C-alpha cells in the first residue's frame, strides 16, 4: 500500500479540500486541514502523517458549524425576542397604527434578499458574502435599538432583515460546501435543534430583557452573539476565493424582488389593512403575478441567471421545494394559533408563550437530531419524509378536535404528534435539496428552499388568519341570534377590529360573554387546523415520490469551475 494511496483515502474520509484529488474546489477548507492538503501533494510524506493531519479537520469543522449555529440563532432569535417587546416599544415610541410594519419590513427584506444572497455566494465566494450579511444584520440591530421614532424603527428593521436574508442561506450553503451530504445529516439535525431552542427561549429572553434592561436590549443582545460569529467565521473558516466572470442578473433580481415584495404585502395586508377585494390588494396581486411570470422568461435568456431554472429539472429538488412551502405554511400557522387557543380558551398566561409551545418544539428538536444522525450513519433518508408526511396531517387533525373543555395535557399530546412530524422534515428538505444539485448551485439550492418555506409561512399565516376571523365572526353572529343571555353580542363588540383578549381580561368578563368568546376562538382554531390538515396531506403525497438518491461522499461531489 503506497503512502500516496493512503493519503487519498484519508482525505476522502475527512472531506479533503483538494479540488482535483478530493471533493472539489468548492468543498470547504478549514484551519487545521492544510497539513492534509500538503501531505496529499508531497510524495513519500507517509500515510501515518497524512492520516494524523487529516484528522484535524473534523475538530475544525465543529468550530465552523458552531459559528454557523450562532448565525442561525441570530436570525431565529430576533423575531421571537422582538415580538415579546412590542407592547413596550409601542408604549414608548407610539405609532400603534404602524405596528404591523415592524414585522412586515423585516419579513419583506428577508424574503426579497434571500435568493440574491444565495446567488452572490455562488458567484463571489461564500465567506465574504456571509460575513457581509452578519455585519449588515448587526448594523440593523444597533440602529433599531437606538431608534427614536416608530418610522426609524421600521426603516432599521428593514436593514436588519436585509442582513438576516443572508444569515440562514449563508449558513446552509457553507455547510453544503464544507460537509459532504453523507455526513451532513447530523449537523443539520443540530441546526434544527438550535432553531427550536430559539423558538422556545426567544419569548422568555425577550420578556426578561424588556422587564429588566429595557426593550432596546432586545436588539442589542445580537451584538455579542454576532461578534462571536464574526470572530469564529473570520479566523477558522477558509474557503477557496473565487470571482465569477459572469454578470449579475440585475433584471432578474429586480423582477424577483418586486414579485416577492408584492406577494408578501398581499399576504400581510389582505384582510387586515385592506379588504381582499380592494384596489390596493388587487393591484398588488396583479403586480406579483406579472413580475413572477416574467421572471422565468428572463432567466432563460441571461447567461448567469439569479435562479438557474435547470435545478428544477431534478425531481427530488422540485418535490422538497413544494414540501418546504407546505411545511412553512403549517409551521408558521401553528405557531400563531396554538398560543391563541391556549391563552384565550385554556386560560394560559401570555408571559409563558415560549413554554406553551414546548410540546411541539421539543419533539421537533429531538427527532431532527436523531434523524440527522441516523441519516449520517446509514445514508438512507427517504423513509423519514414519508413518516413526517403521515404524522403532520394526523397531528393537525387531532388539534382540530380541540374544544373549550380540552385539557392542556390532551392538547399537549396532540402537539407532540405534530412536532415529531415536523422534526422528520425540518432539515432533511434542505439536505435533499443540496444533494440534488452540483456544488456550483449550492447557494441557489439553499436560498430557494429557504425562500419557499418563508413564502409558505407568509401565505399560511394570512390564509389561516382570514379563515379564523371569518369563523369567529360567524360563531359570534350565531350566538347573538340565540338571544342576549348567550353573551354573543357583547363578545362580538369586545373583538371589533380584530382585537383579542388575554387570559386576565377574559377572567373579568361575565360568564356568558366569556363562554361565547371561548367557543368562537375554539371554532376558529378548529377551522384553521382542519384546513392545514387537508393541505398537509400533500406533504405525504410529495414525500412518497422522493427517490432514494445516494448521499454524496466528499470525493463524489462535482468540482466548481
TrEMBL record:
Membrane topology note: Multi-pass membrane protein
Matching Gene3D superfamilies: MFS general substrate transporter like domains, Multidrug resistance protein D
Cellular compartment(s): Cell membrane
GO molecular function, one term: transmembrane transporter activity
Pfam family, one: MFS_1
GO cellular component: plasma membrane
Keywords, sorted A to Z: Cell membrane, Membrane, Transmembrane, Transmembrane helix, Transport
Family: Belongs to the major facilitator superfamily. TCR/Tet family.
Name by which UniProt lists this protein: DHA2 family efflux MFS transporter permease subunit
Species: Streptomyces albus
